[in-house]
Design a protein that fits this description.
The complex is a heterodimer of chains A (about 300) and B (about 220).
Chain A (H helix, E strand, L loop, with lengths): L10 H26 L18 H8 L2 E5 L2 E2 L3 E2 L10 H12 L7 E5 L5 H6 L5 E2 L7 H4 L3 E9 L1 E6 L14 E5 L3 H8 L3 E5 L2 H9 L5 E5 H10 L4 E4 L6 E7 L6 H15 L1 H8 L20
Parallel strand pairs in A: 1-4, 1-5, 8-9, 8-10
Antiparallel strand pairs in A: 2-3, 6-12, 7-10, 7-11
Helix pairs in contact in A: 3-9, 3-10
Chain B lengths: L1 H5 L1 H33 L4 H15 L3 H14 L8 H27 L2 H9 L4 H16 L1 H14 L11 H11 L4 H34 L1
The chains are: A alpha/beta (about 300), B mainly alpha (about 220).
């Protein structure tokens, strides 16, 4: 199954490609913050809206909030080395949540979270919220709160443009990479592929591009972001074969946050900010906004 | 704990890969490191300098950088593209560990009295012969403890491979903790225990060797 074809990419070409990608990213960063990103109306005098003693009141009064997002998922949560702020659907949703507390986008402290430290960050109060392609699961809900989902995606495959992999059955016996320890890697292992874990998605994409591994797997939304960056060499295949429901993480110490998060997401469905946030980020890869997912009720 | 015990074969196969990485890397770096050590004390200036430069460069480079070079930089230049991941892991670990083996071996060679080398030369042995029959056998006895430390470090260094496509113990642990955030401490402890057991076996072996050789030399 492994293709040992040697793709002759001249080193210079690769370097130029990298350089141009870097420049393109800079350009995007510059324009998106001024034009593309939807304006979110910041609530005025928000502190008065919340009951005393709630986390929301505390945050609204302090005028600051710390939100954990990912920095290496184009379209969802991404920050280039030169950008001041992360961009993507998750940060946009973070801005919507902060705005309902009367906190402007400039006053949000963004903190990079990786998959492994999302629960510890919430438990230790390092961050107030986590929006980091954070799939809702029972195991996670046992130790932290997860409200939502505000987005539902599913696992797919990213392969070289000339790859033979067309269906999920074709991955048997191939080498498929993703991020070490991720659920996606576990799922693809069950499909009979040899899992190859890397530290970041970008390292994994490199492995697909240079032919070391046969495919990369993770949530379709992330893959589309990478395919859009290099459409001549990469493509996304197979129907989504898992259901990932992205939720907003909060600390169990502040269970009252759940209802506020759900209400805010609901409001963003109604006033169109949710769709705007999607169009400005994931929508760039040429996908239409999906149906608005139904929110899980908060336990009393 | 149940999630790990329910999939205990995955736990074992992960540590099996850790052991394989360790075994082949230990073998390769003992061989290559000893050769480097002999070159560093050898009569040929060019070889002495080459081996010295290798040790300086590699010892001053973090292991992670060596891994990035073999797994990320090299394939982008179309090297090692079809090479199995285990082999690449062994290459990265051995290139790195050899430098430390070399220095241990050299310290052992320095511990052998100069008269031994002179006596070997006096009876007409070549440099290679005196190394093989006189110097190295004695120096290995002196370096069992430092060499054991180098190998223990190697065993734990195999965990760096977790971020480079190899599903060894640390990578498997991250899979378990990701899926079972509610029992993270227990999973950590269980995997830590696996490493402790392996290191204990290794140090027990080294200790036995040290004791046996000490008696023999008296």
């Amino acid at each position: 199954m492994r293709s040992n074809k040697i793709r002759k990419t001249p080193v210079l070409g690769a370097a130029l490609l990298l350089a141009s990608l870097g420049l393109a990213a800079c350009g995007d960063a510059g324009s998106s913050s001024s034009e593309d990103a939807p304006d979110v109306e910041v609530a005025e005098d928000a502190a008065a809206e919340f009951e005393d003693g709630t986390k929301m009141k505390e945050l609204a009064e302090s005028g600051e909030i710390t939100i954990g997002v990912k920095y290496d998922q184009p379209g969802i949560g991404f920050k280039s080395a030169t950008a001041d702020m992360p961009e993507g659907f998750d940060p946009e949703m973070g801005k919507i949540l902060a705005a309902s507390l009367g906190i402007a986008a400039e006053d949000i402290t963004w903190k990079e979270t990786i998959s492994d430290n999302r629960e510890p960050f919430l438990q230790e109060g390092e961050v107030d919220l986590v929006l980091a392609s954070y799939s809702i699961t029972d195991e996670r809900r046992a130790i932290v709160g997860q409200a939502g989902p505000y987005y539902v995606t599913g696992q797919q495959l990213l392969v070289a443009a000339d790859s033979d992999i067309e269906t999920l059955d074709d991955v048997k016996g191939t080498e498929v990479c993703s991020v070490t320890g991720s659920t996606s890697l576990e799922n693809i292992e069950k499909e009979g592929a040899t899992p190859r874990g890397f530290d970041t998605y970008s390292e994994c994409v490199d492995q697909v591009a240079n032919g070391t591994v046969d495919a990369m797997t993770t949530d379709g939304a992330i893959l589309l972001g990478y395919a859009a960056e290099d459409p001549d060499n990469l493509k996304v295949v197979v129907e989504p074969f898992s259901e990932e429901r992205y939720g907003v993480g909060y600390s169990k110490d502040a269970p009252e946050m759940c209802q506020w998060i759900n209400d805010t997401i609901e409001a963003s469905y109604e006033d169109g900010t949710w769709e705007d946030a999607f169009a400005a980020t994931l929508g760039e890869a040429g996908v239409d906004a999906p149906e608005q997912p139904e929110l899980d009720p908060c336990e009393a | 704990m149940e999630p790990v015990f329910a999939d205990f074969d995955l736990y074992l196969s992960a540590f099996w890969l850790t052991i394989q990485l360790f075994f082949w890397s230990a073998l390769a770096s003992l061989a290559f490191g000893t050769l480097l050590g002999a070159l560093r004390v050898g009569p040929v200036a060019v070889m002495r300098r080459t081996a010295g430069t290798y040790v300086t460069v590699v010892r001053n480079t973090p292991l992670l950088i060596v891994f990035i070079f073999i797994f990320v930089v090299a394939p982008s230049l179309q090297w090692f593209v079809g090479t199995p991941f285990l082999v690449k892991g062994v290459i990265a670990l051995s290139l790195y560990t050899s430098a430390f083996v070399c220095e241990s071996v050299r310290s052992g060679i320095n511990a052998v009295p100069l008269g031994q080398a002179e006596a070997a030369r006096a009876i007409g042995m070549t440099f290679g012969d005196s190394m093989r029959h006189v110097i190295l056998p004695q120096s290995f006895r002196a370096v069992v403890p430092p060499l054991a430390s180098v190998l223990i470090a190697l065993l734990k260094n195999t965990s760096v491979a977790a971020a480079f496509g190899l599903l060894e113990a640390t990578a498997r642990m991250r899979g378990f903790t990701n899926a079972n955030a509610d029992v993270r401490p227990e999973i950590f402890l269980l995997f830590a225990l696996g490493y402790i057991v392996l290191v204990e076996i290794l140090s027990a072996g080294a200790w036995t060797l040290e004791r046996r050789w000490k008696v023999a030399s008296r």
